[in-house]
Design goal:
alpha/beta, Rossmann fold, globular, disordered N terminus, Terminase_L_N, Viral_DNA_packaging_terminase, Bacteriophage protein
Length: 227
């Protein structure tokens, strides 16, 4: 059996300009299998190995560290051949040379704790479609360091979601938006391409939502979840 993952660094060249451009808010969204989270992990490791940065990696629900981007970061560290430069602890990752640090939080249970964080250079919001307006009102002023960035990485959920309405449809000034789908991911296996093609033929509407990053209306979601 051949793994769908490669053992080499796999930064997507299609996203190079997105990561190198400076912006307060970076919104990277699209369908499944488009390399969004893997690329974010890769660029985060690259930056943390070059500069001294503090990353807060957050998602809505995190019952254990393995549910966070912690695992993606560990894999990318190994792919870049940098294990000797990082200390991988039970609850954080630290670069031994630059002093860069990754901390991990679940927003649902720890939003008040995040409020007290200092010196965050990058807030990485994984599965950001689930972020609420209340949570953002706490997070935005917390990420106050000069030049700091907020990364929103997600597959769109509903057209009524806070992040969709406020960071894609009507984004604030200083927001960089990039949509990417599987057809811009040069690392997809033949197996996954066949799965995607089958989904396109079997359920065109579901395919648009899952693989082309088209958000659903409340009615669409209700129909999809109906027994």
């Amino acid at each position: 059996m051949t793994s769908t993952l490669t053992s080499k660094p796999t930064l997507n060249p299609a996203l190079r300009s997105f990561w190198t451009m400076r912006a307060r808010n970076k919104v990277l969204y699209g369908g499944r299998s488009s390399s969004k989270s893997w690329d974010a992990a890769g660029i985060a490791i690259f930056l943390s190995n070059k500069y001294t940065l503090r990353f807060c990696c957050a998602r809505q629900i995190q019952n254990k560290i393995e549910e966070s981007v912690y695992t993606l970061l560990k894999i990318q560290i190994d792919r870049f051949g940098l294990r000797h430069r990082f200390r991988i602890l039970n609850n954080k990752i630290i670069n031994r040379v630059t002093g860069s640090e990754f901390v991990f939080y679940g927003l649902w249970r720890n939003i008040e704790e995040i409020k007290s964080l200092e010196g965050i250079d990058v807030l990485w919001l994984e599965e950001a479609h689930a972020l609420t307006e209340y949570q953002w009102k706490i997070l935005e002023p917390t990420i106050r360091k000069e030049g700091s960035e907020c990364w929103f990485i997600f597959n769109p959920g509903l057209v009524t979601d806070f992040v969709w309405r406020n960071f894609v449809v009507d984004p604030p000034e200083g927001t960089l938006i990039r949509k990417i789908n599987y057809d811009e991911n040069p690392f997809l296996s033949d197996t996954m391409l066949k799965v995607i093609d089958a989904a396109r033929r079997r359920d065109p509407d579901g395919f648009k939502h899952v693989y082309e990053g088209v958000p659903e209306s409340d009615d669409d979601a209700a129909i999809r979840l109906a027994p």
